[in-house]
Design brief:
Layout: H1 2-32, H2 36-44
């Protein structure tokens, strides 16, 4: 039982980091983007 809880915790942390890594990547791309049309397209992606 303890092993299953540890596995679920580690899997949850991995999914959390994966999701926030994607949003951080998008934020860094928007920071360096100069074309208004591409910036608008990046900001509307969800």
């Amino acid at each position: 039982m303890y092993g299953a809880i540890v596995f679920l915790h580690v899997a949850g942390v991995f999914i959390f980091l994966l999701g926030h890594g994607g949003s951080a990547n998008a934020a860094f791309q928007m920071k360096h983007e100069r074309d208004p049309d591409r910036l608008r397209a990046c900001s509307t992606c969800r």
